[in-house]
Specification:
alpha/beta; about 900 residues; AAA family ATPase; Rossmann fold; DUF499
């Protein structure tokens, strides 16, 4: 559901809309300034003052009691009031209200909220009274006040009060007491009190005056004066004394504490204590002071209702202290603010020594509202409520105001590093990199800001619980699970955020993430690369079924055998690099300086790239180093536990990264071109081992087989030969990509056994005269009876039947062809004479000549497959040239041994050497 942004529903006051710089003094009443006519208009003009003042319950009770007493009614009234709150709690504001009421008299009846005061007081009009104001921060006992326009100079509170109440005549009563700095008695005080009208005496900031004048003795005299004044006010019918004392003074000295206690006890004994601030009324006070407020609009009630519905739907996931059943009323009472924003100051911040409960909140929220209003209309954000997570901590002025309430800027680094205020702040970066739903909601920044406010700025052990964070951040249509996602990411990233058992707080000390970051920077690249290779080998060594060849950098390191081999390329051989493709192609077709026979035996595990592995390897190494240095780091129990958990997680992560990185396998396809198998997003739960996963997929695709049927051999029998050696059959499955790769070449024995048994194949040996011995056909054999060699053959059913019937009996060995797809033996030239017959079917040649190089591993095969055909009945001459080269030198002993061997064979022992 679409909810209007708050700034399109309610309007901040003009100075906030225009973004004019605001100072705390904007929300601090100076009573002396009001008396002298130089206070801001909101405080100086009584009409404006009462319009912007919310008449809280206790404030209304105080005002009604004072009016009643000034009217001469002594029943249910008090002549002395002690106004106590925390700093900034509204004491001076209350004194200002009494000042305007007493000065306004009958005219005050038309001011906003005054009729309700008069009704509570039981009078029709407020009596006009003589008012005296003494503010300790303004009055200086040494320089005094006066000497202008014929005024007498006053040096004491009693001199100043007497003058304000009765002018020069009143001061004359206490002139000597003022000169001698001695408090007047109750009898003397009675003389300067007005006889024709009520009197209201307002004392503010007394502790400041006492602290400055303790050495002169004025502090003790002030105590005596207030005591005498209080006693006299009690004896009078229409005199009221109102004194404000803070409930706690920041950095109070022992002498300050002693004076505070004395005055507190005196005033409590002789008067009535009034607590000015009430938590339930704070929101109304704030709305009156910050907005053009005429009550909550319909759109505001709609928003409150939607948020309340969300709370009701998630009642088990929000704090137990929040009254869920009254959610709609609570959201309406605090609109446009989220209720957790206002309550956090009362729940958490009021315990801070420097926190000013009303004035401090007003100062912060004024800057907050001004910033959010301008940002909103610039299109930056469209928040339906002003929530805790939207605090403009990136604004230096606002941040400074926050730290002022916290008692110092120790957390400046934590805020700018982890939340906002700097270009690389973690929360800002995480939001930028997050999915759309989290990025658009600025969820990382909101969550971290809520933790900052809820954890009391890290100044105490207060923490932000997960339910508190949910309530403060979530809004209609937001997936609540995204909050946990953001918290997890923040916990893994931030440098000053600590988390334990779903409790979060910002600390003054760097956390393990910061230690990790510093340590990661010191890890040498060589350690990282070694660790990566070790992790990759560890993963690929698990499982059976295939040989592994790790990180070859040249083709000669890759064996050329009729055995399936998985070649694992090093992490920096990325599949997207052209050089990687070139290397794979070259190493598949070559083996050192020779051509490769078993091209199809190679499976290539090709990485996506090394970056993710490098990051994870560096992290694992850093955590391991930190674990080794635990005793030196002096970690607490929670950090030690977190370190152990993080190390285990990092070890799991690098394992998963190996799986994700090596998700590509390349192999020759049936078309003799490269085929790439992309396994997609894989993880370790997909199979027991990564090798198992690869083999399973290749089986499914038909690229690997556990065995083949006899019928497969007959279907793929080449017409170029009659007999097929068992070794050539086996080799064909690793040399030709047209054949499926066998996990185990020995399974060919089972294929031959089944073929012999059903008559499709015969298993034979060949004698020199070309006859078959042994000859097994339509017989039962065991796989142990089958020999894989160049001397044992398989023939097809037709030839076996003919041979069995005696119709075919070769007189000489029949040449066999190499396995399909096998490379040539290095044939370079072959020539022969013109055929004697008319056609090539029965043609004969008088001689043939061949020359070429034969690889050493094929010398024996060359004799068996080529020369043996001409050894009987033909004049075969073999001319051999042997050339041996060695970069390290050929020992003379080997040369002599060669000569001896040549003589034993009846050959010339002439060897040319240099």
């Amino acid at each position: 559901m679409y909810l209007k942004p708050w700034y399109k529903v309610v309007t901040p006051r003009e100075d906030l809309r225009e973004g004019r710089p605001l100072d705390a003094s904007e929300f601090a009443v100076h009573l002396d300034h009001v008396r002298e006519g130089r206070a801001p208009g909101d405080y100086q003009d009584p009409v404006r003052f009462f319009e912007r003042t919310f008449l809280a319950k206790n404030l209304g009770t105080l005002a009604a009691g004072v009016v009643r007493r000034l009217s001469g009614i002594k029943v249910e009234t008090s002549p002395v009031y002690n106004l106590t709150t925390q700093f900034g709690g509204g004491k001076t504001h209350a004194l200002t209200l009494l000042y305007h009421l007493a000065r306004g008299g009958r005219a005050a009846s038309s001011w906003k909220s005054v009729p309700s005061i008069l009704e509570a007081a039981g009078v029709k009009t407020a009596p006009e009274a003589a008012v005296a104001v003494f503010v300790g921060t303004e009055f200086d006992a040494i320089t005094g006040r006066g000497a202008k326009n014929g005024e007498p100079v006053r040096h004491t509170p009693w001199g100043e009060i007497a003058f304000q109440l009765a002018g020069t005549d009143g001061f004359a009563v206490v002139a000597k007491h003022d000169e001698q700095r001695t408090a007047p008695s109750a009898e003397v005080i009675r003389q300067f009190l007005p006889k024709d009208r009520p009197a209201l005496i307002l004392l503010d900031e007394l502790l400041n005056f006492m602290g400055r004048n303790r050495k002169s003795g004025l502090t003790a005299q002030l105590y005596a004066f207030v005591q005498n004044l209080s006693e006299e006010a009690r004896a009078q019918d229409r005199v009221v004394l109102a004194v404000s004392l803070p409930s706690l003074l920041d950095e109070m000295t022992p002498d300050d504490e002693a004076d505070f206690d004395r005055f507190q006890k005196l005033l409590d004994r002789l008067g009535k204590a009034m607590i000015m601030s009430a938590e339930s009324e704070t929101s109304e006070i704030i709305r009156r002071r910050l907005f053009e407020w005429g009550g909550i609009p319909d759109e505001g009630r709609k928003t409150a209702g939607e948020y309340a519905e969300w709370v009701l739907a998630h009642r088990n996931q929000v704090p137990q202290w929040f009254p869920v059943d009254k959610a709609k009323e609570i959201f309406a009472d605090t609109y446009p603010f989220h209720p957790t924003l206002l309550s956090v100051f009362e729940r958490k911040w009021q315990a801070l020594p420097r926190f000013q409960q009303t004035r401090g909140i007003l100062r912060l929220l004024a800057l907050w509202v001004s910033h959010a209003y301008q940002a909103g209309f610039k299109g930056a954000h469209k928040d339906p409520l002003i929530g805790m997570g939207t605090a403009p901590l990136d604004d230096p002025m606002f941040r400074s105001a926050v730290f002022e309430q916290l008692g110092g800027a120790q957390l400046e680094g934590a805020v700018t590093t982890d939340i906002c205020g700097a270009k690389g702040s973690h929360s800002l970066r995480l939001d930028k990199e997050a999915v759309d739903t989290i990025r658009k909601a600025r969820l990382h920044q909101k969550v971290s800001t809520v933790v900052f406010f809820e954890s009391n700025g890290g100044q105490t052990k207060t923490e932000a619980t997960l339910p508190e964070i949910r309530l403060a951040v979530a809004e209609p249509d937001l997936d609540i699970g995204n909050i946990e996602t953001a918290l997890e990411t923040l916990t893994d990233t931030c440098y000053f955020l600590s988390a334990e058992k779903n409790r979060y707080r910002f600390s003054l000390s760097p956390n393990l993430n910061k230690l990790l970051s510093d340590r990661r920077a010191s890890i040498q690249p060589s350690r990282v690369e070694d660790r990566i290779r070790a992790e990759v080998q560890k993963i690929f060594r698990e499982g059976n079924g295939v040989d592994r060849i790790f990180f070859p950098d040249k083709s000669s390191l890759i064996t050329d055998r009729a055995v399936l081999a998985l070649v694992v390329l090093p992490p920096d051989r990325a599949i997207s690099d052209q050089g990687t493709r070139t290397f794979i192609d070259t190493a598949t077709r070559e083996h050192g300086t020779s051509s490769r026979t078993f091209k199809s035996a190679l499976l290539w595990a090709v990485p996506e790239g090394p970056n993710a592995l490098r990051d994870d390897a560096r992290k694992v190494l850093a955590w391991e180093d930190l674990e080794d240095e635990q005793s030196e780091l002096r970690l607490d129990e929670g950090q030690s536990r977190q370190l152990s958990e993080n190390l285990k997680k990092a070890q799991r992560d690098i394992k998963e990264t190996v799986w994700r990185t090596y998700k590509n396998v390349m192999l020759l396809g049936k078309d003799n071109d490269w085929k790439t198998v992309d396994f997609g997003l894989v993880h370790s739960s997909a199979a027991d081992t990564l090798v198992t996963l690869i083999l399973k997929r290749l089986r499914q695709d038909g690229d690997i087989a556990d065995g083949v049927s006899p019928n497969f051999l007959t279907r793929n029998w080449s017409p170029a030969f009659k007999e097929w050696s068992t070794k050539s059959i086996r080799d064909a499955f690793f040399a030709s990509p047209q054949f499926p790769r066998l996990l185990n070449g020995e399974v060919i024995k089972d294929t031959i056994v089944r073929g012999v048994e059903n008559g499709m194949l015969a298993y034979v040996g060949k004698k020199t005269d070309g006859s078959y011995f042994p000859f097994h056909w339509q017989a039962s054999l065991g796989s142990q009876d089958i020999e894989i060699s160049d001397d044992m053959y398989v023939i097809q059913q037709e030839l076996a039947e003919a041979y069995k019937a005696g119709k075919t009996a070769p007189s000489s060995p029949t040449p066999t062809s190499p396995a399909p797809g096998a490379p040539s033996t290095g044939l370079s030239s072959i020539t022969g004479s013109t055929p004697a017959g008319p056609d090539s079917t029965g043609a004969t040649l008088s001689n043939i000549t061949w020359s070429g190089e034969i690889p050493s591993q094929k010398w024996m095969n060359f004799y068996t497959k080529v020369l043996s055909k001409f050894a009987a009945g033909m004049d075969l001459k073999l001319t051999l040239k042997v050339e041996v080269n060695s970069a390290t030198g050929i020992p003379t002993q080997k040369v002599e041994e060669t000569k001896v061997a040549l003589r034993e064979l009846g050959l010339s022992d002439k060897v040319d050497a240099d």
